[in-house]
Write the structure tokens for this entry.
Amino acid sequence: MRHRAYAAAAAVPDPEIPCITVADLGILRSVDIVDGVAVAKVTPTYSGCPAVLAIELAVETALREEGFEARVERVMSPPWTTDWITPEGREKLAAYGIAPPAAASNSIRALFGETQVDCPKCGAPETERVSEFGSTACKALYRCTACREPFDYFKCI
Ligand SMILES: [Zn+2]
């Protein structure tokens, strides 16, 4: 029963990037059955991101559609980082034309406030940031100087 509840919650797509699920993003922490109620624990990606409420509602709705009494709890600690995105999630982001975040923990450049962003379309490392904010506040707009294609970069936090 717990497994079925988890599968229903895990399949919920991110409202901003519909190709990726909450499980791919790593924000679905757990689903447990507590006194007959499916309790999903979700950690928001970016605090203040308006998608947080939409995601919580979508997870609750998915559980109810599976026939569960459902509750979503927001877990703030430990905070989500882009390192939680699964390898499969990173592939989906790249396939969708969004540069997956560089792993913050192993990037020397991050120490200097620089981010190496490879073009998701042609793979070239020559890219430039056009705007701090892309299609949503969670992403930055970049452009590849090799193939001239603009793309969204999922910001590393
Ligand atoms: Zn390119």
In short: The longest helix spans residues 51-65. Residues 104-112 have pLDDT under 50 and may be disordered.
